[in-house]
User: What shape does this take?
Amino acid sequence: MTKRDLTQAIAAKAGLTNAQAEAALDAFGAVITEALVADKKVQLPGVFTAATTQRAEREGRNPATGEAMTIPARRVAKFTPATARKNAL
Assistant: This one.
Protein backbone atom coordinates (compact mmCIF):
# COMPACT_ATOMS: atom_id res chain seq x y z
CA MET A 1 0.00 0.00 0.00
CA THR A 2 1.45 3.34 -1.01
CA LYS A 3 1.07 6.62 0.85
CA ARG A 4 -1.47 7.74 -1.74
CA ASP A 5 -3.54 4.56 -1.23
CA LEU A 6 -3.37 4.99 2.54
CA THR A 7 -4.45 8.65 2.45
CA GLN A 8 -7.35 7.80 0.13
CA ALA A 9 -8.48 5.00 2.45
CA ILE A 10 -8.23 7.27 5.51
CA ALA A 11 -10.17 10.01 3.69
CA ALA A 12 -12.93 7.58 2.75
CA LYS A 13 -13.22 6.06 6.26
CA ALA A 14 -13.06 9.36 8.14
CA GLY A 15 -15.06 11.52 5.74
CA LEU A 16 -12.10 13.82 5.06
CA THR A 17 -10.68 15.26 1.88
CA ASN A 18 -7.54 13.63 0.50
CA ALA A 19 -5.55 16.75 1.46
CA GLN A 20 -6.82 16.62 5.06
CA ALA A 21 -6.06 12.89 5.31
CA GLU A 22 -2.54 13.44 3.93
CA ALA A 23 -1.92 16.27 6.42
CA ALA A 24 -3.12 14.06 9.28
CA LEU A 25 -0.91 11.17 8.13
CA ASP A 26 2.11 13.47 7.84
CA ALA A 27 1.45 14.86 11.34
CA PHE A 28 1.08 11.32 12.71
CA GLY A 29 4.44 10.34 11.25
CA ALA A 30 6.10 13.49 12.59
CA VAL A 31 4.74 12.92 16.11
CA ILE A 32 5.96 9.32 16.16
CA THR A 33 9.39 10.38 14.89
CA GLU A 34 9.68 13.12 17.53
CA ALA A 35 8.70 10.69 20.29
CA LEU A 36 11.21 8.06 19.17
CA VAL A 37 13.99 10.64 18.87
CA ALA A 38 13.18 11.69 22.46
CA ASP A 39 13.48 7.99 23.43
CA LYS A 40 9.79 7.72 24.35
CA LYS A 41 7.60 4.68 23.81
CA VAL A 42 4.58 5.11 21.51
CA GLN A 43 1.61 2.83 22.20
CA LEU A 44 -1.45 2.79 20.01
CA PRO A 45 -3.69 0.15 21.65
CA GLY A 46 -4.97 -2.40 19.18
CA VAL A 47 -2.51 -1.28 16.49
CA PHE A 48 1.17 -1.26 17.49
CA THR A 49 3.85 -0.27 19.98
CA ALA A 50 6.96 1.58 18.85
CA ALA A 51 10.09 2.07 20.93
CA THR A 52 13.81 2.46 20.48
CA THR A 53 16.35 -0.16 21.40
CA GLN A 54 20.14 -0.27 21.43
CA ARG A 55 21.97 -2.59 19.06
CA ALA A 56 25.36 -3.71 20.29
CA GLU A 57 28.53 -3.40 18.25
CA ARG A 58 29.09 -6.55 16.20
CA GLU A 59 31.31 -8.10 13.60
CA GLY A 60 30.09 -8.31 10.02
CA ARG A 61 31.38 -8.91 6.52
CA ASN A 62 31.63 -6.58 3.56
CA PRO A 63 29.38 -8.30 1.00
CA ALA A 64 31.49 -7.11 -1.93
CA THR A 65 34.90 -8.21 -0.64
CA GLY A 66 34.13 -10.63 2.19
CA GLU A 67 36.44 -8.59 4.45
CA ALA A 68 35.62 -8.59 8.18
CA MET A 69 34.42 -5.27 9.54
CA THR A 70 33.01 -3.87 12.77
CA ILE A 71 29.42 -2.64 12.67
CA PRO A 72 29.10 0.12 15.28
CA ALA A 73 26.50 0.18 18.06
CA ARG A 74 23.41 2.29 17.35
CA ARG A 75 19.85 3.04 18.35
CA VAL A 76 17.10 1.56 16.18
CA ALA A 77 13.31 1.77 16.08
CA LYS A 78 11.37 -1.37 16.99
CA PHE A 79 7.73 -1.77 15.98
CA THR A 80 5.63 -4.51 17.55
CA PRO A 81 2.12 -5.19 16.26
CA ALA A 82 -0.72 -5.48 18.75
CA THR A 83 -1.80 -9.03 19.57
CA ALA A 84 -5.18 -8.55 17.85
CA ARG A 85 -3.46 -7.40 14.63
CA LYS A 86 -0.92 -10.21 14.79
CA ASN A 87 -3.64 -12.81 15.26
CA ALA A 88 -5.67 -11.35 12.38
CA LEU A 89 -2.83 -12.22 10.01
Observations:
- Helices lie at 3-14, 18-37, 83-88.
- The two ends are 16 Å apart (CA to CA).
